[in-house]
């Protein structure tokens, strides 16, 4: 497909469509931020207004309205399944990456980004486009792709088994972020989701408090987390990467450094488009970061940076040895 290029020049139209597609991220973030406001009638009305708008969106971050699922289930058997997946630990930029990948006109858009089911692909069909939609895209652009976006790298064993049963040539994009920065971002995410409860807990007063307790308890116990994911284990990447390579083959697995994606968004997207066998396409790059946590917290302090960088150093080296690359992580 390398000699086929897609050009769409109307920037305003593309930006409007881009923002409309990603409205779900804005709504969910605003609802989370409202948890930090004191109870009031004004807060209640804001939340209800957001809930009503949420019912009728084109695309969802996660958790579409149940009535939308019920309606789509009427033609479940006529829907396709994905042929590539973007897998990452949480808070690594998968939301941002998904918004850019879905700009490509040859990538069909599912109903929501995150489908929290790993063991049964038949359940996924309700969320995916129809066979007729796939045929139409292939007529227009010569090919089509459809993705599964999973910031659940700790579930790699179950997820890889399910994806491998769809077809043999499944493509896997692994998005990995500097594990120290990722851990800090997860800590902030806990504070956002926990609201007042998190603010009153000692481990959320300073990130080094959390990091020190997590490392001290490893590996005998897993540090508790409001979001449910283990802060330390999410950043030990080499075992997950090795599992995907063994399951799908090295030629079907592309490892992306999230730092490169943040700094060189267009170049990284071009690399992924090529890996997926898609026509060349120049995406619309904006300054907006989707699913970004705007809650103000204490910064990533030097104590925590040292504690975690020393913890992750041997695991990072095992990753570098596996993929034949070295990243400039903390």
Task: Explain this structure.
This protein has one domain: Rossmann fold. The strands form 3 sheets. Strands 4-6-3-7-8 form a 5-stranded parallel beta sheet, with helices on both faces. Strands 1-9 form a two-stranded parallel ribbon. The two termini are 38 Å apart. It is 48% helix and 10% strand. It has helices at 11-21, 23-34, 41-54, 66-72, 94-101, 121-124, 131-141, 156-164, 179-194, 196-199, 207-217, 238-248, 258-263, 265-275, 302-323, and strands at residues 5-6, 60-62, 84-87, 107-108, 112-114, 145-150, 171-176, 253-257, 280-281. The chain is an alpha/beta fold and 330 residues long. It is built from 15 helices and 9 strands.
Average predicted local confidence, pLDDT: 89
| Helix-residue proportion | 40-55%
What proportion of the residues form beta strands (DSSP E)?
Answer: 5-15%
CATH-derived topology: Rossmann fold
Number of domains: 1
- CATH architecture field: 3-Layer(aba) Sandwich
CATH superfamily: P-loop containing nucleotide triphosphate hydrolases
Task: Please tell me how large the radius of gyration is.
Answer: 20 Å
List the helices and strands and how they pair.
Blueprint: E1 5-6, H1 11-21, H2 23-34, H3 41-54, E2 60-62, H4 66-72, E3 84-87, H5 94-101, E4 107-108, E5 112-114, H6 121-124, H7 131-141, E6 145-150, H8 156-164, E7 171-176, H9 179-194, H10 196-199, H11 207-217, H12 238-248, E8 253-257, H13 258-263, H14 265-275, E9 280-281, H15 302-323
Parallel strand pairs: 1-9, 2-5, 3-6, 3-7, 4-6, 7-8
Helix pairs in contact: 2-3, 8-12, 11-15, 12-15
């Amino acid at each position: 497909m390398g000699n086929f290029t897609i050009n769409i020049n109307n920037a305003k139209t593309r930006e409007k469509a881009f923002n409309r597609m990603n409205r779900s991220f804005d709504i969910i973030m605003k609802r989370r931020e409202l948890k930090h406001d004191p109870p009031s009638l004004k807060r209640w009305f804001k939340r209800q207004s957001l809930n009503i708008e949420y019912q009728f969106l084109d695309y969802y971050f996660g958790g579409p309205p149940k009535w939308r699922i019920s309606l789509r289930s009427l033609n479940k058997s006529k829907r396709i399944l994905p042929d590539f997946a973007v897998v990452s630990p949480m808070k690594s930029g998968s939301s941002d990456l998904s918004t850019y990948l879905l700009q490509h006109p040859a990538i069909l858009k599912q109903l929501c980004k995150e489908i929290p089911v790993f063991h049964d692909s038949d359940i996924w069909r309700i969320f995916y486009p129809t066979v007729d939609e796939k045929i139409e895209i292939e007529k227009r652009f010569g090919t089509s792709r459809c993705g599964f976006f999973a910031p659940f790298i700790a579930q790699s064993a179950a997820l890889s088994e399910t994806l491998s049963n769809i077809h043999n040539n499944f493509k896997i994009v692994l998005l990995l972020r500097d594990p120290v920065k990722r851990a800090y971002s997860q800590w902030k995410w806990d504070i956002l989701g926990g609201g007042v409860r998190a603010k009153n807990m000692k481990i959320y007063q300073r990130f080094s408090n959390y990091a020190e307790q997590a490392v001290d308890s490893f590996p005998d116990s897993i540090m508790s987390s409001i979001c449910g994911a283990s802060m330390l284990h999410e950043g030990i990447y080499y075992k997950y990467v090795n599992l995907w390579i063994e399951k799908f083959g090295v030629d079907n697995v592309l490892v992306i450094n999230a730092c490169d994606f943040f700094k060189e968004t267009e170049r990284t997207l071009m690399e992924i488009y090529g890996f997926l066998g898609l026509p060349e396409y120049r995406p619309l790059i904006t300054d907006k970061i989707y699913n970004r946590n705007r809650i103000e917290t204490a910064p990533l302090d030097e104590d925590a940076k040292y504690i975690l960088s020393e913890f992750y150093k041997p695991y990072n080296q095992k990753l570098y040895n596996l993929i034949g690359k070295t990243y400039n992580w903390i």
